[in-house]
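Researcher: Please predict.
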Amino acid sequence: MTKTIRLTMAQALLKFLDNQYFESDGVENKFVNGMFGIFGHGCVTGVGEALEYEDHNLTFYQGKNEQSMALAAVGFAKQKKRKEIIPCLSSVGPGAINMVTACGCATANRIPLLVLPGDTFATRQPDPVLQQAEIFSSVGTTVNDAFRAVTHYFDRINRPEQLMTAAINAMRVLTDPVDTGAVCLALPQDVESEAYDYPEYFFRKRVWHNDRRYLTQAQVDRAVEVIKASKKPFMVLGGGVVYSEAGEAFKAFAERHNIPFGETQAGKGTVAWDHEYNLGGVGVTGTKAANLIARDADLIFGVGTRFSDFTTSSKWLYQNPDVRFLTLNVAPFDAFKMDAEGILGDARCGLEQISETLGDWKADYGDEIAERKAEWNAIVDSFYEEEHADGLSQRRAVAEINKFMTDDDIVVCAAGSLPGDLQRMWRPGKPGTYHVEYGFSNMGYDLNGALGVKLAAEENQDVYAMVGDGGYIMLNAEIHTMVQEQAKVNIMVLDNQGWGCIEDLQNEHGGNSYGTVFLSRNKPGDQALLGERMMVDFAKNGESLGCKGYTCTTVEELRVALQDSRDNQTGPCVFDVKVVPKTMTQGYNSWWRVGVAEVSKSPEVREARKVLDKYVSEARVY
């Protein structure tokens, strides 16, 4: 007879999660070690009761905003290379759907995130319950159905025994290198507290295995045939190289076959920035070196990349009329983009197999790679020594922070103009120290995700969150949690008094900084914001939350503040770095497609439309 244990659904969920493990290359990790949560009536007497009274090994982290705590969980899982997660628990209604944005972020970046939102009563008797939005077309629909659009698996547990199939499927997705992303298990608050006689085997230790997927010989032969048909191939190093831990294999492949490469945001930092074949970021926020070599290449070999519009410059970058695309990717959805010859398999195994069959074959490059790299290094060197007449430029501030950090320290960034600066000019230390979320470009991830990165980091690793003033104002809730957890994060707020990235984009297409600079309204009734620039003291704001605050307007002030933080501070620090607006890096031989008005009263907009039409005619169509 099967032994059972009587538990509430919430208690059983906790016990199940506490016994999940993940194995890769023979190394086993406990998959769930903690839980973020904000208690409300939809969870405090259910999962909250289980967290308080049941025996478990999960550390509870008290989030301050559901979106920001879930972004911290995404940052944690990304830094852990998808081998560990921190689930996120919320109440019903607004607290629940606050996590939808973070789920979109996780799914876009292929990062495992488990969200556990409270839901309305399965019995429908307290109806409508507090915080319930009634959907007139279906009383069975709740706001949690919004998660369906941004998750790879969604389930609502309407009976306690349904937990068993739901939990197994959740883990299946969370640990799958292809299908991973956000998972939502919606928890009706009455069912959370209902008991069931669960079989003991449901709670046994479960190990989920990441088995490497080797290529068939036919796949290897197809890849080799395509590569040998090229003379000047170019490789793209994507995030899949990071998650398959294929950095050394990728580097060896480039060296053996004389192939230069560019990096996506997710792949950057995997191979040393000064490696002879590493030309830096590629695409819209790429380097001149990478983009010029990529422009003329006759083969683009993407490894672990999803070929986003930033990586391809909206399919315009690769201008060789005879260019072909070859992709090595574990995900079929990504492997066949750009009409590529798709090779399905693990990045590390695949590169090693293909290289072995290629033998001593080399691409036909002479001094071109070294010349392009030297030219670009000189450009970046000039940013690192830049003196701006009006004050501290954003480029120089980024450079100073980069120079100060050790090779073990981690930089975190996500949105605005800063990811472009970092992809072009940041010189990372050791692998795993460049952490930029750019699949969703989620404002708020930079600051709040940095908490998760710090929780995942080694003890000797300091974390530096590169944040724009717009992003800081938008979402800074987990600063409170950083103080609570004594998690030292250096929050570098580069204040250019507005949404500088979008202002720059607007200006390039005929706009006049309308609604993108933080200006006061001259008087009530004015349609536009045309007053003085709004100045914020971010250092004092940080201090009010318990951080150490610094105001930096010069290179010397920034250097002194960075040193004081390292030498004397043990908690989070907020650096209010006042930079000259419009001093971010600009594009190099790239283009990004955005919609430009086809008819307009503005001659500048009409001219921008002509430029758009020209680039569209030159871009590839798939």
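Model: The chain has three domains: 4-210, 217-372, 388-497+535-578.
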